[in-house]
TrEMBL record:
Region (Disordered): 21-67
Entry keywords, A to Z: Signal
Family matches, as Gene3D superfamilies: Haem-degrading domain
InterPro entries: GlcG_carb_metab_protein, PduO/GlcC-like, PduO/GlcC-like_sf
SUPFAM superfamilies: GlcG-like (SSF143744)
Species annotation: Nitrospirillum iridis
UniProt signal peptide: 1-21
Entry keyword annotation includes Signal: yes
Pro residues compositional bias, start-end: 49-63
Annotated protein name in UniProt: Uncharacterized protein GlcG (DUF336 family)
Coiled-coil segments on the chain, per record: none
Length: 202
């Protein structure tokens, strides 16, 4: 088979074009290789295509809203005075602020933590009615709304041992004591604890 001069020339052009094409890799391939060979500078910034833009980081946390109540120093001092008054008993003490939130749980060594929880329930009852916790039984007998509220929660107790903490006629919290026998002894110890700090309450 004879190849004409024109055909040979055309074949040469074709070979040259093919050689040039092999020297020029597709842009996508070059970009991929460049990305893979680039130094690692941490995770990619920003969302991937199609992903939602994440929200900006939150600002500074606002300060807590704190209800009125005894300071932690006075709450601790009252709890220690209760333990001294109730010497010989394993008592737990709970001190609440005006919102009914715990300011202090005090559980001496050798005392079950359940006493502090019962103390919380007594204190919560005293806070609810603004009077010693054992009076809640009399109150709910004549106040259906109060009775329904107490019945709907396990966070109240009608035993003696819970007292409101008052300053100038205003209830600013409550203290509850549990673990002594009878429960009237819990209340007597709670009164001793309050007496220790009453003049310094604000």
């Amino acid at each position: 088979m004879k190849i004409t001069t024109a055909a040979m020339a055309a074949l040469g052009v074709f070979i040259a074009v093919q050689a040039g094409a092999q020297d020029q890799e597709p842009a996508s391939s070059r970009s991929r290789d460049t990305a893979l060979s680039a130094p690692y500078n941490g995770p990619m910034m920003g969302p991937r295509p199609g992903e939602p833009t994440p929200p900006p980081p939150p600002g500074p946390r606002p300060p807590d809203v704190v209800a009125r109540g005894p300071s932690i120093e006075l709450a601790l001092e009252a709890a220690k005075a209760v333990v001294t008054s109730c010497k010989g008993y394993q008592v737990g003490i709970a001190v609440l602020d005006a919102a009914g939130l715990p300011k202090l749980y005090y559980v001496p060594d050798g005392t079950a933590g359940s006493h502090a929880y019962t103390g919380f329930r007594k204190a919560n009852s005293a806070l609810l009615i603004g009077a010693p916790s054992e009076q809640i039984t009399t109150r709910i007998a004549t106040d259906k709304g109060l009775a329904d509220k107490v019945a709907a929660s396990t966070n109240y107790a009608s035993w003696a041992g819970g007292l409101p903490i008052m300053v100038n006629g205003e209830v600013i919290g409550a203290i509850g004591v549990s673990g002594a026998e009878p429960s009237e002894k819990d209340e007597a110890c709670a009164r001793d604890g309050l007496r220790e700090i009453q003049s310094r309450l604000k």
